[in-house]
């Protein structure tokens, strides 16, 4: 299922429509589904709140209909989540996630070595989609790592999950995407630490951790110096960045700093209502035309920070709504991380993996501005919350 989010919109319409109809039918006809869904209400409420606020922003700023298209998709996943109230075969889903990581990792390798693409971008998008693709792939890698560590995973499937980690991680390194790879490190470390503390199986976790770290460092430092060069260039780009339009921002870091400066300026001018959904590009071009911003950012439509994006679009209220979208699932999953039932704790860990990656990547990139990353977040976070609700609903009282 996660693979459908990485392909074109046309290919994922049918499965999404079927799941949506199934979710609606379950909510309408199955009382147990409604009871299970209520156990996950905080996460669903946070997602619904963001939809309501975005719709109010759309009406308040009198925007064109395309501006509300992406937020409206939240309704789709609020219904789809009901499917997770059923006793699904989780091994099939877990295998699907690892196969997705294998396929996308192989696609990155094929694009790099067979097509000569400098920064692989996966099955959807173009050169500009490398960062988004890397984040998607690294989430699949982390979820595969979780399955490789779990003591209940059959040995034949454990090797599949390990292969997915290796191939997927190599493909992610090929994208040279600094933000997602830097976000991956603390989330991966947290996953290994949690597993060691929760299961007491230290050896398996530490061996996998050591192999992963050594492998990443070896590949990055020897075969692909581009990633090292991109990291080394950060201080120079920061130092050379000038404050104002007279000094053109150069490089990815310089352009980000210029976009962040312009976004902060837009927020200061409209701290309560913002300037409207998807209006940063219009504002930035106006600043460039007025000689108040570098021409290097004229082609960008988002400020490469989800937090700044929300502040520009809707001011302080929109930022608070975004923080709730992240914080509520973090608390929901965090409270179940030490649950005595291993499947519940594993689902909680998976949920924290997803939210953690989005929270960290959101500092330097827009993680909810396109259908693919938003769909993945809503599908996994809502689905895992309902899955935990189902398991808790069927837990016999002590």
Notes on the structure:
The structure is a single chain. Residues 243-247 have low confidence and may be disordered. The two termini are 36 Å apart. This protein folds into two domains: 2-227 and 311-393, no CATH class; 247-304, no CATH class. The longest helix is centred in the C-terminal third of the chain and has 30 residues, at 306-335. The chain has 398 residues and is an all-alpha fold. The chain has 16 helices and no strands. Helix 9 (178-199) packs antiparallel against helix 10 and helix 14 runs antiparallel to helix 15 (342-361).
- Could you name the ranges where pLDDT drops below 50 across 5 or more consecutive residues? 243-247
Going by helix content, strand content and strand pairing, the class is: mainly alpha
The whole-number mean of residue pLDDT values reads 86
| DSSP summary: helix tally | 16
Count up the domains.
2
How big a fraction of the residues is strand? under 5%
What shape does the CA trace take? globular
Pattern of helices and strands: HHHHHHHHHHHHHHHH
Taking all Cα atoms into account, the compactness measure Rg is 21 Å
As a percent range, the share of helical residues equals: over 70%
Number of strands: 0
Keywords:
398 residues; mainly alpha; 16 helices; 73% helix; 0% strand; globular; ligase; O-antigen_ligase-rel_domated
Please sum up the structure shown.
With 398 residues, the chain is mainly alpha-helical. 73% of the residues lie in helices and 0% in strands.
């Amino acid at each position: 299922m996660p693979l459908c989010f990485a392909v074109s919109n046309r290919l994922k319409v049918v499965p999404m429509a079927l799941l949506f109809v199934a979710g609606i039918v379950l909510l309408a006809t199955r009382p147990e589904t409604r009871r299970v869904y209520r156990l996950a209400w905080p996460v669903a409420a946070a997602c619904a709140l963001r939809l309501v606020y975005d719709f109010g922003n759309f009406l308040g700023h009198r925007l064109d209909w395309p501006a509300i298209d992406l937020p409206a998709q939240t309704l789709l996943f609020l219904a789809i989540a009901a499917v997770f109230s059923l006793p699904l075969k989780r091994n099939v889903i877990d295998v699907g996630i690892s196969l997705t990581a294998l396929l996308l990792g192989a696609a990155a390798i094929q694009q790099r070595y067979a097509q000569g693409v400098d920064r692989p971008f996966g099955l959807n998008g173009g050169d500009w989609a490398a960062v988004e693709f890397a984040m998607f792939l690294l989430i699949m890698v982390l979820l595969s790592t979780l399955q490789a560590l779990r003591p209940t995973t059959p040995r034949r499937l454990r090797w599949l999950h390990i292969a997915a980690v290796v191939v997927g991680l190599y493909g992610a390194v090929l994208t040279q995407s600094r933000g997602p790879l830097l976000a991956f490190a603390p989330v991966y470390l947290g996953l290994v630490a949690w597993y060691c503390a929760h299961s007491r199986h230290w050896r398996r976790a530490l061996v996998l951790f050591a192999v992963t770290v050594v492998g990443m460092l070896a590949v990055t430092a020897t075969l692909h110096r581009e990633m090292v060069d991109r990291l080394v260039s950060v201080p120079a780009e920061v130092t050379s960045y000038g404050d104002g339009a007279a000094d053109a921002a150069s490089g990815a870091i310089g352009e980000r700093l210029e976009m962040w400066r312009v976004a902060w300026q837009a927020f200061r001018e409209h701290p309560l209502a913002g300037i409207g959904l998807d209006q940063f590009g219009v504002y930035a071009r106006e600043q460039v035309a007025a000689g108040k911003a570098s021409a290097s950012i004229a082609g960008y439509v988002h400020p490469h920070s989800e937090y700044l994006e929300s502040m520009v679009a809707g001011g302080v209220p929109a930022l608070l709504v975004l923080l709730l979208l992240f914080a509520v699932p973090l608390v929901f999953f965090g409270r179940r991380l030490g649950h005595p039932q291993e499947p519940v704790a594993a689902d909680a860990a998976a949920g924290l993996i997803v939210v953690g990656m989005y929270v960290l990547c959101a500092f330097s990139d827009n993680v909810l501005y396109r259908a693919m990353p938003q769909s993945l977040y809503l599908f996994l976070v809502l689905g895992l919350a309902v899955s935990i609700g189902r398991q808790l609903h069927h837990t016999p009282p002590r």
